[in-house]
Each structure stands twice: as structure tokens, then as C-alpha cells.
Amino acid sequence: MDQIEPQRVLLAGDTHGNGKWVGTLCKLASLHGCDAVLQLGDFGYWPHTDKGLRFLDQVDWHAERYGISCFYWIDGNHENHEMLAGLEADEDGFVTIGERCRYAPRGHRWRWGRVDFGALGGAFSMDHHYRVEGVSWWPNEMPTDADVANLGDAPLDVLLCHDAPEGAPIRNFELQPRDEMLCSLVRERVLQAVKATRPELVVHGHWHRRTSSELSWPTDCDGELSWASTQVEGLAADKQGDHRAWAVLDVDPLKFIDGQAEVS
Ligand SMILES: [Mn+2]
Predict the structure, then answer these.
(1) What ranges do the domains of the chain cover?
(2) Residue 2 needs a FRET pair 20 to 30 A away by CA distance; which of 83, 126, 174, 230 works?
(3) pTM for this one?
């Protein structure tokens, strides 16, 4: 695979193994002059099933068809985390999944242009009660303190996460107390990563809705109280399947551009 440094990428929310939607995303990427796609987890890495294997073929096929150099993704909660853990990263820290498909593991950092990117995938499955371990649910779905530590505290420009940082708007669900605890634990960890890396932009998926907010937190600067802030953009999913589920990112200089309703 030719590795090119993307100048402009299409950001995409959850795809859930939906090959048809990935086709639409690659087409949109091409229409908007994007070199690559950056997908924010619940990609649909299920190579233990025929459908999952077919999906990986479809990703490569659509990327090639629309001239997309690479479909990059971070992990969500609904991936086969056991198989992901068995894969080895390339020298540059990405994991090659297919001809034009690469996975950015939790804690991975990379630079395109003068822009530093970081990945922190994973989340808690609120629907785990309906899932079967090893078939449709895997332990290790949640980002750990070690993952946050691996990401480190050097400044980032863009942090890509599956879950939202605590404090950003999400959707309200009635959860059992234990589930509620785990659900917020993940968001606390993402917030910790945000505070440590102070990115200009955080983009996430997971909640299947389009949200936009400015997240601020107090910092102690030489004993003086000051404020740090970041732009947080949550993207919708294949279930929504429209402009809310994608956006365009100009890499250098960094510019986030909303998905356009009139193009589909
Ligand atoms: Mn999802």
C-alpha cells in the first residue's frame, strides 16, 4: 500500500460493519476531495464471521473504487477485541488490516503535516445484556488507565475517541447503577486524556447522534487559575446515514467542516 500523508480526510461516525454505508462514505470522501477516511469506532471488526470478513473486503473494494488511499479506524466497543489484540502494529504504529484499511490502536499517535493526531478507542456496551461473550461482546472493550497513560501527555491537535469526554453532551439512557458507573468511568478516562493532551479538537462517535460543544476546564497555571478548552464534535452513525454521520477535516491548517445535507 502506498502511504500518502492525507491533506484532507473524511471523518466518519460508527459504521457497524455496514458495507453499503462505507461505500457511501468513500464516495463522499472522493466528492469532497479527501485522501483518506478516519472512522471513529464501532467500525465492525468481526472477522470471526463470514459477514465480518465480507465487510473487510468491501472496505478495501470501496476505498479502491473511489480512490481513497486508506480507510483508517479506531476501535469502538463492538469490535472483536480478542482478535484485535492478537494483531501486530507496523513500524509506524498502525495495524494493517487490508490493502487500504488500517487500524489505529489505543494510545497511537501520528503526525500528518504539522498536525499531531492521537487515538483512544473503546467504550462500554450499554447493550451487553443482549450480547454473548466471544460472539458479539468482548472483554477489554473499555479504554483503561494504561491506554490513557500510553497516549501520554504531550500536546495533541486532534484526539480521536469512540466515546465522548465527560462533560460533553451525550444521550440520556436509563441504566442499571453498575452499568451507569462503567459508562461514566469511560467518559472520565477520555476526559483525563483530553486534559493531559489539550487538543484543539476532539472527535468521537458512540452515541449515534450529532453533537457539537466547547468543553472547558480549569487549569492551574503557575498558581493562577486559568481555563483550557477544546472543541468536541460527536458524529452520528450508519443508522442515521446522513450528513450528521460524517464531516470533513482539512489537516494543515486544521479546519473542521460539517457534513453537508445536500450531498449524499
Ligand atoms: Mn455504535
Answers:
(1) 8-258
(2) 83
(3) 0.96
